[in-house]
Amino acid sequence: MTEPPEPGVVLDVDGVPRGQAVLDELMRLLELERLEVDLFRGVSPATSPVRVFGGQVAAQALVAAGRTVEPERQVHSLHAYFIRPGDPSRPIVFRTERIRDGRSFSTRRVLAIQGGEAIFALSASFQLVQEGLEHSVPVSAAVPPPEELPSIGDRVVSGAGAAWIERVPRSLDIRFVEEPVWTEDRVATDDPLRAWIKGDGRLPDDPLRHVCLLTYISDLTLLGSVVGRHDLSSTSVQMASLDHAMWFHQAFRADEWLLYECWSPAASGGRGLAQGRFFTREGTLVASIMQEGLVRLPRRG
After folding, report:
1. Known active-site residue 241
2. Helices 207-218 and 20-31: crossing angle, nearest 10°?
């Protein structure tokens, strides 16, 4: 007999928790505990993979940086390296350095530490809102609206899910435009891979929360675009993020639909380069991403 959900928890069509309560839990996870001036501590969710999810530690590090900057200065870019796999059963300490506070820009550096060793390093830049030239590239091709695409729960019920995604509570609503790289019946393509994504609930108006959630989201499907150009499933390769960079161009809400367009321009030496772009429903480019990751084929013999 299936256990009834906790009060306030909504179940997806396949019985997995989703909605506002799950989104609130993710945002509490990203909020961090302040230990001392410029020193914070974060944890991983109870339901975690073998290593800490890269988007989680990147978002938490950005929170640590953002909590040392005046709220009027908003994140415009970040550059990061994944140094060691994180252990999700242990807390992560985030040490922030205040590199510079100028008239318009502030720079912060954050080191994520477990067991006395660095697992992740982040540099982030913040800027006072200013006026200037504006232009943007359009979405590469027309896409169906998210309401016409299957949800993750719909995919699981239809048998098109994957084990890793069937058990995890869904703080995000994700609607893939093309077949996800973890499905067996997909075909290789040189076209971008796209998905509509948003927080499955409502967030406060704090811009830092929206930027940090988008940072979390950005690591979810990006590296899969490397596999997308080849005739194989992502479940048959080893993948891990090596470095990550983001630029934020316009204000946005991460609890409203954003189209994530991912494409891989190159792969070699067991590594793959991926680039991503987030667009609003109106077609405005709000963020750009570059990432290189480890992409290893299984050993033969």
Report:
1. yes
2. 100
